[in-house]
Automatic annotation (TrEMBL):
Coiled-coil regions listed: none
Species for this entry: marine sediment metagenome
Keyword Cell membrane: no
Cofactor(s) the record lists: adenosylcob(III)alamin
Protein name: Ribonucleotide reductase large subunit C-terminal domain-containing protein
SUPFAM superfamilies linked: PFL-like glycyl radical enzymes (SSF51998)
Alphabetized UniProt keyword annotations: Cobalamin, Cobalt, Oxidoreductase
Classification via PANTHER family: RIBONUCLEOSIDE-DIPHOSPHATE REDUCTASE, VITAMIN B12-DEPENDENT RIBONUCLEOTIDE REDUCTASE
Length: 241
């Protein structure tokens, strides 16, 4: 996965990761008698790769890590950027569920679930967790929140899988190995300016949007993708933003 990250950033792309399926810290690992390090221990490796491999050799790439709010290591994840130099190449976001928000509203406990065994390993107060998220976001800018259940309700391609992460800056919800081409329109160029007034030139804006959509869709066909899995998924769903 770190190698794939480097290849994507080398080609000018950003990356989004869901760590929600990784075993929690101290979880027993198979016949070798070892224990798992947990999702948070993997973040520095991805962060270093992002720092070293610049996007197209020009600027550092953008990465986001997402962890489900019911993962046993959620508190460690929320606190992962507590130091000034911690994970400087990563955005963090918590994937919150409808069940969690309902528990926050009434101050109830909710379950932490081992993603490997599917067993409930603990119950903690939802409002306490939410307060930690808010406090850390205020202090460090992270974590953000991804309303994962609400996003997946409007998943346009459910037959391809469930959405569990987003693009590097959160613009587009994505399935595993999906990518999206991003464009922008300079709204300052979409104005009719008079002597004392200015108004939006809607016909010009509409034509610009139409052209931009066609352009971004065409890029999917001519682009050289860093991984064959990304090319296959992107050509199935053709997401732009």
């Amino acid at each position: 996965a770190v190698k794939n990250t480097a290849l994507i950033h080398k080609g000018g792309g950003g990356t989004g990761f869901s760590f929600s399926k990784l075993r929690p810290a101290r979880d027993w690992v198979g016949p070798n008698g070892g224990v798992a390090g947990g999702p948070v221990t993997f973040l520095p490796a991805f962060s270093v790769a992002t720092d070293i491999i610049k996007q197209g050799g020009i600027r550092r790439g953008c990465s986001i890590a997402v962890l489900s709010v019911d993962h046993p290591d959620i508190i460690k994840f929320v606190m992962a950027k507590n130091g000034p130099d911690a994970l400087t190449n990563f955005y963090l976001s918590v994937a919150v569920t409808t069940e969690f928000i309902a528990a926050v509203n009434v101050g109830a406990d909710y379950s932490l679930i081992n993603p490997h065994t599917k067993e409930v390993v603990a119950k903690i107060n939802a409002k306490d967790v939410f307060d930690k998220i808010v406090e850390q976001s205020w202090k460090t800018g992270d974590p953000g929140i991804v309303f994962i259940d609400r996003i997946d309700q409007d998943n346009p391609t459910p037959e391809l899988g469930r959405i569990d992460s987003v693009s590097g800056c959160g613009e587009q919800p994505l399935l595993a190995y999906e990518s999206c081409n991003l464009g922008s329109i300079n709204l300052a160029r979409m104005l009719r300016v008079g002597d004392e007034t200015a108004e939006i030139d809607y016909p010009k804006l509409a034509e610009t949007v139409k052209t931009a959509v066609r352009f971004l869709d065409n890029v999917i066909d001519v682009n050289k993708f860093p991984l064959p899995e990304i090319e296959a998924m992107t050509k199935k769903s053709r997401k732009i933003g």
